[in-house]
Recover the amino acids of this structure.
């Protein structure tokens, strides 16, 4: 690059200024005029000047905004490569060693840096090299005394799971120190600098952490990590303090002669330091996170010479194949490359299946040597030595196929594009992670060959990051919410947690090899990536099993809630165990034939991934033969009954692992019991009864046992732990719902609809009591007569008729048109199931294909029953039809079958006419909690009073589930949500009259809809429309759960908003404002009315409360206090208070936090049973009065409501009032509000540059008033947050707060006639 005349003269002018004593020069020009060439020329001319003054050696620091620019430009600055420091060594905290390494070099030295990697030492915990070097220096200094090993363990952190890998980093940095020209002088200087910069408090913190490690050292297992001892946040904070200390040392030693700041406005915080800014700063960019935290190599796509028609990084691929397969001839490598680039014709999924087999297991090749044909395996990845692989992150990687595309980020593993990351900006409201998903699907059409080699797809908008595969629907993309397997803090995962959690080098290749499989579902094949909960739990299970094989044989209990993928976790476990234990034989044990078939089916679908074909034992002898016929390998499925047929050992091998599905059921009893009975002669005899668990143990005496369950093990149940050991991992319902792995389950009681008499209700209660004692056979036997009575009562023809009529009414009016319309009816017994099935067909003769009966058969069944029940093949056909989303079968009548292990994701409704308790109940209701499209949740419709049993079952879950799922009643959960969303949608249409939709003709309804579409789409703010679409969808979802208790008017309104939502979406997606024909609108209206409106009314729970009420009306509050329905009073108060707090959340952050905390404390005490209904009502009433009183506080101070909010923010630390008079505070407030009003950038909080300007103005204003006092710096953040709220909700034109201002007049777009909206 030769400088042009104007560039040469510019550089000359800059150096002249340096010669004259100036030390800061700003160069500003248009884009593309060659600032980098000017910088290069400045470096050269500075060198000439330095030689003139006999000081030719000088240091140049080049600072740019990111590593990509640094890599591009460092080579253009004219400095020899040997005198340039790699950007990967640009960590400021490591510069001290780099300076010592290059001290003997002559001429100019170039050190590139970026703000994120060099200066912002607040995110992450630095690189492993950074921590290793810091440890070596601290250890040498002797500042931490005898804690050398503990300090090493601490600095290792959880990122490096293997101690051996950490030692490699230590050895590398030690070699760098040993190779220094003057090692001893360097160490002596560093020791002195460390004593100067590392204060006593920091040394004390380090020693305290080391003491904590030493305290637990002996109790920790060999593979323990730091997270087993202390929280990650504690580790990170302390490590970053150490990094900051070394950065200060480096900065003092660096003493650069020339600093070039490229595009300095992007990191002006390095120039203008604000002592009040204690924010954490922006997150590391994705590329820098991979490059510096995860230590991937970075490449910039346009810099690589390659074939743009190939998705592979060919040079790296070829180099990697030769490196990983040393000893194999060139012919074998070339054969593997040929197979990698040439796949047989087929669908994308088929090609990807072949590739994944290559990736996981290697490519089989053949070649000739010495005239002979040889066969071998070419491996694409070194799974045993992760750091022997090439990990590259690339951006701007262009690929040309059907069109020219450039995905945001590609991760290459040994030259293979195994991960594609699509990013969307969090600052653009019109895009989000969903938009990234749609972009990925578009790429699969435009550049399909890129996805042949894909293992994982990622979509991210920085707020939400999710991973899936090429077959995953958007609802199956999952977040990765932990870096180390802890579930405690995983409700809201941070951006870096996702990427660091999934893409650590060792973890990524582990995921690729052991946690991605294909499930062949017949016509379709699905590619499955394990969720984070499955990955960590399976890994724990492997370690637990390995310990059990050499100890007591108790592998533990693997408890993952129903619907969260337990069966697939068992598949991943089986695959991983083959390598972990040198090919053991797996015996998969269930307690029912249908469950055996279901689990066997799942394993069979994944047989290629398992690398062996599972088999089912047909009999005890067959099981014995299968075990005897091998000394290793094999996956054998069997039922418990085959163990009970004899007590003789089936095998005495030690390398057998028994995987018991639903471990808590039936597999009890390690001891023998004596049962006294009478023989045929009437004589009492004592019979020895052997417990089932003991029978299994006797049959496989040397096996290791691990239990898998989706339902909780009772706290009273010690048998399961006695058989299998303690919990390996717990993934509860709360976490599963938060993660989107399952959907919540809601409850609706319709017991009253059956008009059951008291005697029947008492009998049902008796059965619940009986089931609580399910293990006592004597009690069960004694009560059979009573249960027979209930069979008669529940099976009464009149009762069955009432039941079926109500189910049909509920189903047709509320559930038939929801999703795929699938529903399940659970009957008390086989005869009652048959009656229900027949009565449905009598009332709906045309439903013969729509309804199916699924239950076991018995020898004594009437012939008529046999024809209906059918054989095994008939049941399989029904199952296939019911699972088919487009299948004609919509309603399944069951007794026991299909209540466990049977998955139909679209199933959203279960009608329960069978008393159930404990794990049986939980297993049953979990049929409706599967994820499917926009399914809001599953609905349990109760006809036998399971509410109490449901709460008791929930209490067996974790403490979190007791709190979060203690009440699933739709009247208390879904119905209030429906009312809330309905109110919001009404607000959105304030000023538009849609009454004609409620009481007009079909034509008038159509016009009401088109006019409403015009009204909402004509908004100036795009987010008005987007917000309505989101709220209307949530309204529709809430109605889907509680439509049976919503009155006709509410359903009509919801139908209206749903019609508008659908039309708005169609218009938005079509990209045109074309006019919709009336017949299409009328068709949609008819569909909506059919599913939302019914003739008969329902009881309104709030009918005795007047329609409008205020939290600030003393008379109303007294009425609430006097209500007889205390639960309703609590719900009403909670709702009103929460609504007022939500207002404060948008206007006054301090009051919002204060009142939220009081409300939360009261409700927690109430939910945990610590206070009574009356007490919580009293507390809520007191809180309501406090909120009412707070409305008047501003008047006493002479402040408006918004000025009072600033007053609260300024005085949040009460001690601040000791430093300022009220007059001073009010002066600050007035000036603050005035400054904000003058700023006309209303959307400043959405634009980073405007945001930064605003923050600076506010801080300067506060500084002027010497706010805050010393030691209370955190108070500034509260004021900042209040300013954001104020600007977001303030109407500058009218000078007041506006929470919902939808009064503008809109111009009609697609209405039949022009109308004015009042």
């Amino acid at each position: 690059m030769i400088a042009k005349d104007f560039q040469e003269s510019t550089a000359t002018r800059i150096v002249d200024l340096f010669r004259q004593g100036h030390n800061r020069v700003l160069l500003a020009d248009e884009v593309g005029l060659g600032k980098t060439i000017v910088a290069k020329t400045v470096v050269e001319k500075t060198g000439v000047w330095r030689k003139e003054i006999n000081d030719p050696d000088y240091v140049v620091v080049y600072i740019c905004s990111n590593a990509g620019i640094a890599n591009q430009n460092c080579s253009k600055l004219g400095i020899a490569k040997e005198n340039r420091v790699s950007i990967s060594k640009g960590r400021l905290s490591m510069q001290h060693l780099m300076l010592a390494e290059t001290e003997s070099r002559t001429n100019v030295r170039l050190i590139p840096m970026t703000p994120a990697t060099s200066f912002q030492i607040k995110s992450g915990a630095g690189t492993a090299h950074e921590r290793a070097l810091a440890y070596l220096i601290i250890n040498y200094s002797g500042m931490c005394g005898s804690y050398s090993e503990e300090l090493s363990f601490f600095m290792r952190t959880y990122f490096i799971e293997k101690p051996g890998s950490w030692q490699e980093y230590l050895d590398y940095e030690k070699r760098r120190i040993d190779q220094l020209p003057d090692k001893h002088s360097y160490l002596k200087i560093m020791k002195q600098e460390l004593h100067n910069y590392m204060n006593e408090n920091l040394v004390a913190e380090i020693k305290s952490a080391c003491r904590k490690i030493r305290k637990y050292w002996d109790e920790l297992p060999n593979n323990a990590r730091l997270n087993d001892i202390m929280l990650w946040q504690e580790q990170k904070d302390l490590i970053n303090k150490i990094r900051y200390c070394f950065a200060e040392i480096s900065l003092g030693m660096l003493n650069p002669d020339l600093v070039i700041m490229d595009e300095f406005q992007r990191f002006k915080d390095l120039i203008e330091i604000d002592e009040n800014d204690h924010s954490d700063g922006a997150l590391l960019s994705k590329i820098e996170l991979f490059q510096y935290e995860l230590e991937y190599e970075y490449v910039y796509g346009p810099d690589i010479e390659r074939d743009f028609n190939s998705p592979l990084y060919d040079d790296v691929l070829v180099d990697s194949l030769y490196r990983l397969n040393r000893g194999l001839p060139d012919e074998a490598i070339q054969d593997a490359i040929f197979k990698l680039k040439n796949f047989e014709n087929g669908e994308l999924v088929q090609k990807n299946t072949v590739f994944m087999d290559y990736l996981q297991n290697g490519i089989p090749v053949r070649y000739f040597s010495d005239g002979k044909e040889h066969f071998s395996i070419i491996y694409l990845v070194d799974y045993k030595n992760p750091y022997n692989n090439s990990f590259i992150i690339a951006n701007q990687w262009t690929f040309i196929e059907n069109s020219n595309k450039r995905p945001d980020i590609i991760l290459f593993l040994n030259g293979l594009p195994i991960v594609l990351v699509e990013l969307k900006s969090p600052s653009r409201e019109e895009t989000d992670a969903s938009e990234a998903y749609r972009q990925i699907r578009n790429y699969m059409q435009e550049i399909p060959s890129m996805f042949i080699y894909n293992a994982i797809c990622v979509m991210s908008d920085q707020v939400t990051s999710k991973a899936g595969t090429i077959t995953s629907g958007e609802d199956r993309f999952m977040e990765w919410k932990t870096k180390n397997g802890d579930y405690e803090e995983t409700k809201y995962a941070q951006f870096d947690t996702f990427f660091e959690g999934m893409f650590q080098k060792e973890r990524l290749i582990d995921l690729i090899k052991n946690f991605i499989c294909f499930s062949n579902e017949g016509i379709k094949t699905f590619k499955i990536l394990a969720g984070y909960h499955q990955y960590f739990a399976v890994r724990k299970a492997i370690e637990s099993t390995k310990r059990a094989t050499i100890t007591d044989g108790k592998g533990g209990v693997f408890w993952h809630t129903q619907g969260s993928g337990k069966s697939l976790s068992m598949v991943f476990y089986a695959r991983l165990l083959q390598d972990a234990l040198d090919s053991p034989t797996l015996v998969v044990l269930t307690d029912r034939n249908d469950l055996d078939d279901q689990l066997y089916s799942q394993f069979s679908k994944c047989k290629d991934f398992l690398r062996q074909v599972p088999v089912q034992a047909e009999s005890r002898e067959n099981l014995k033969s299968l075990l005897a016929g091998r000394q290793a390998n094999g996956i054998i499925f069997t039922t418990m009954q085959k163990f009970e047929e004899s007590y003789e050992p089936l095998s005495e091998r030690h390398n057998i692992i028994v995987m018991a599905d639903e471990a808590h059921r039936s597999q009890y009893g390690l001891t023998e019991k004596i049962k006294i009975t009478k023989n045929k002669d009437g004589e009492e005899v004592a019979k020895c009864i052997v417990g089932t668990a003991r029978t299994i143990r006797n049959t496989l005496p040397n096996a290791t046992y691990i239990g898998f369950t989706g339902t909780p093990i009772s706290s009273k149940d010690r048998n399961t732990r006695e058989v299998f050991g303690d919990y390996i991992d717990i993934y509860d319902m709360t976490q599963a719902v938060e993660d989107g792995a399952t959907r919540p389950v809601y409850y609706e009681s319709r017991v009253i609809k059956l008009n059951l008499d008291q005697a029947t209700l008492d009998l049902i209660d008796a059965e619940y009591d009986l089931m609580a004692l399910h293990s006592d056979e004597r009690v069960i036997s004694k009560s059979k007569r009573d249960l027979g009575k209930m069979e008669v009562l529940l099976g009464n023809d009149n009762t069955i008729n009432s039941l079926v009529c109500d189910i049909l009414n509920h189903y047709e009016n509320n559930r038939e048109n929801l999703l795929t319309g699938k529903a399940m009816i659970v009957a008390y017994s086989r005869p009652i199931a048959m009656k229900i099935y027949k009565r449905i067909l009598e009332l709906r003769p045309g439903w013969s294909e729509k309804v199916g009966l699924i239950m076991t058969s018995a020898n004594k069944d009437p012939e008529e029953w046999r024809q209906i029940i059918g054989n095994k093949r008939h049941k399989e056909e029904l199952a296939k039809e019911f699972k088919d989303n487009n299948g004609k079968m919509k309603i399944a009548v069951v007794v026991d079958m299909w209540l466990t292990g049977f998955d139909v994701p679209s199933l959203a409704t279960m009608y329960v006419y069978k008393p159930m308790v404990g794990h049986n109940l939980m297993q049953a209701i979990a049929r409706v909690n599967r994820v499917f499209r926009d399914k809001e949740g599953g609905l349990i419709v109760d006809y036998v009073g399971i509410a109490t049993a449901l709460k008791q079952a929930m209490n067996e879950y974790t403490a979190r589930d007791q709190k979060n799922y203690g009440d699933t009643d739709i009247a208390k959960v879904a119905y209030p949500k429906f009312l809330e969303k309905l109110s919001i949608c009404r607000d959105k249409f304030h000023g538009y009259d849609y009454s004609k939709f409620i009481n007009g003709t079909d034509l008038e309804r159509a016009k009401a809809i088109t006019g409403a579409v015009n009204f909402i789409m004509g908004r100036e703010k795009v987010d008005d429309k987007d917000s309505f679409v989101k709220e209307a969808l949530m309204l529709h979802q809430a109605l889907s759960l509680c439509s049976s208790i919503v009155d006709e008017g509410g359903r009509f309104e919801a139908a209206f908003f749903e019609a508008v939502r659908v039309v708005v979406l169609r218009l938005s997606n079509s990209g045109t404002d074309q006019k919709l024909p009336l017949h299409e609108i009328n068709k949609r209206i008819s569909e909506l009315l059919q599913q939302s409106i019914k003739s008969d009314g329902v009881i309104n729970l709030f009918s005795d409360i007047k329609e409008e009420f205020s939290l600030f009306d003393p008379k109303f509050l007294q009425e609430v206090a006097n209500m007889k329905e205390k639960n309703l009073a609590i719900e009403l108060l909670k709702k009103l208070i929460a609504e007022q707090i939500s207002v404060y959340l948008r206007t006054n952050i301090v009051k919002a936090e204060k009142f939220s905390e009081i409300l939360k404390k009261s409700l927690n005490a109430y939910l945990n049973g610590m206070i009574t209904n009356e007490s919580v009502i009293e507390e809520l009433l007191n809180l309501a009065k406090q909120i009412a009183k707070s409305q008047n506080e501003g008047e006493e101070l002479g402040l408006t409501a918004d000025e009072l909010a600033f007053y609260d923010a300024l005085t949040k630390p009460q001690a601040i009032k000791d430093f300022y008079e009220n007059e001073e505070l009010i002066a600050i407030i007035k000036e603050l509000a005035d400054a904000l009003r003058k700023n006309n950038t209303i959307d400043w909080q959405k634009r980073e540059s405007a945001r930064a300007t605003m923050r600076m103005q506010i801080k300067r204003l506060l500084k002027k008033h010497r706010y805050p006092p010393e030691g209370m710096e955190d108070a500034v953040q509260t004021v900042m947050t209040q300013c954001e709220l104020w600007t977001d909700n303030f109407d500058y034109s009218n000078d007041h707060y506006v929470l919902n201002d939808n009064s503008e007049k809109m111009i009609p777009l697609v209405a039949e006639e022009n109308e004015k909206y009042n």
The first strand starts at residue 58 and ends at 63. Residues 232-254 form the longest helix (23 residues).
